[in-house]
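Weekly structure sync, notes
Attendees: PL (lead), two postdocs, one rotation student
Agenda item 3: pending single-chain targets
PL asked that the sequence for the first pending target be pasted directly into the notes so everyone works from the same version. It is reproduced below exactly as submitted, 103 residues in total.
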Amino acid sequence: KGIRGLVVRVGGWCQGIVKVKGEVSVERWKYAEKKEKGSGGVRVENDVEEVAGETDLGDWQRVIRLGPGALPCSLTFTPAKMKEGNVVKAGDTKWTVIEKHEW
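Predicted structure, written out during the meeting:
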């Protein structure tokens, strides 16, 4: 299909890159701790998208996004849903979870 991509989450950072028909898109997210429990959902403020997990004590903030492609970075914020072989969707593109390592 001419689509290649990768999303990697290590600790409090997640980044991804996808190339669709020669067009490249990238995203980077960071985890910012808060004093109060996150309420869940997505909030956009000052062009920074935040995703708060229901059990997290902080929020994920998108630091940068370049290009028009959709990446499934925010799906890594709930690792229990990310299992090898699962197919997830970001925009119009389906992604297959190839590897997942935890320690």
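Discussion points:
- The longest strand covers residues 23-33.
- The beta strands are 3-10, 13-20, 23-33, 41-45, 48-52, 58-66, 87-90, 93-96.
Action: rotation student to compare against the earlier draft before next sync.
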